[in-house]
From TrEMBL:
Organism: Clostridium aceticum
GO function terms (MF aspect): catalytic activity
Name of the protein in its database record: Uncharacterized protein
Record InterPro entries: HAD-like_sf, HAD_sf, SPP-like_dom, TPP-like
Superkingdom: Bacteria
Length: 275
């Protein structure tokens, strides 16, 4: 079994998701820092369950984070180092921490063949005056771009039209709180997981994720789960009701991670009984 899971707001959480009641009843561990600042946490119970799961299934972290951002998570560098990790929103596959050059080359060739060049995307973006509401703009592993925005000053109508234009030119636009992503359509988590599945021995795939960037991999998997607080649960509720294989947690925030992992643990137990 392969367990592919998004990280931020699915398995790991920033301080804003640490509910007061959770802090009173659960042990919390800091698993990521940047320049001395606390970035991400997990509960000790979730870490314990994930450690156990990783010995029974092929655990694959799947994240939009860049390679550098992923490597900041100490839990996956030391305590639970996965053999495979998908980063850069599917643009890079790491095997034992090293980039799989075959997949990376294939992705870059697809971007060049099918997608409008990034410089043309940025020229179009400047037409909606990002200098008025973008505080910074960065590249992620030379594959896609994201901007930190002032949410109160977003030009909503112009931004919606820009995102539609992106789609017409084989790019996707995602607004997730303060981050606005421009991603080539061929750079996605679903295709990266499919590539990995075709290269390893696995007969059943489980996926977990919270955002619109995760929809493809959740629908592709044999069984999926999404946290109640996420975009998928909020925006795709009718689709989820029709898609029986996608489950929604009852817990929110950092405790949703525990529920997701326990759910996978129970699924494994069912498989073992049937074996």
């Amino acid at each position: 079994m392969l367990f592919a899971s998004d990280l931020d707001e699915t398995l790991i959480y920033s301080g804003r998701f640490l509910q007061e009641d959770c802090l009173k009843t659960s042990e919390i561990r800091l698993i990521e820092t940047k320049d001395g600042k606390a970035i991400a946490y997990m509960t000790e119970a979730a870490i314990k369950t994930l450690k156990s799961l990783s010995q029974k299934v092929i655990f694959v972290p799947v994240t939009t984070r860049s390679i550098e951002q992923y490597q900041r998570i100490t839990l996956f560098q030391k305590e639970i180092p996965p053999q495979y990790a998908i980063v850069s929103n599917g643009g890079n596959l790491l095997i034992d921490g090293s980039v799989d050059e075959g997949w990376n080359t294939l992705i870059r060739e697809k971007v060049k063949k099918h997608c409008l060049p990034l410089k043309e995307i940025l020229v179009k973006f400047r037409e909606i005056h990002p200098e008025d509401w973008v505080t910074s703009q960065k590249m992620a592993d030379d594959l896609f771009c994201y901007a930190i925005v002032d949410q109160d000053r977003l030009p909503q109508e112009e931004l919606c039209r820009f995102i539609e234009w992106l789609k017409e030119n084989h790019w996707e636009g995602y607004l997730q709180r303060r981050k606005l992503y421009f991603v080539p359509k061929v750079v996605n988590k679903k295709d990266a997981i499919e590539y990995l599945i075709n290269h390893i021995d696995t007969d059943f795939t489980v996926a977990a994720g919270d955002s619109l960037m995760d929809v493809g991999m959740l629908k592709q998997a044999d069984y999926s789960i999404t946290p109640l607080h996420g975009e998928i649960a909020r925006l795709y509720q009718k689709d989820i009701d029709k898609e029986e294989k996608i489950q929604v947690t009852s817990a929110t925030g950092i405790l949703a991670s525990e529920e997701i992992l326990k759910n996978i643990e129970n699924l494994i137990a069912c498989f073992q009984k049937l074996a």
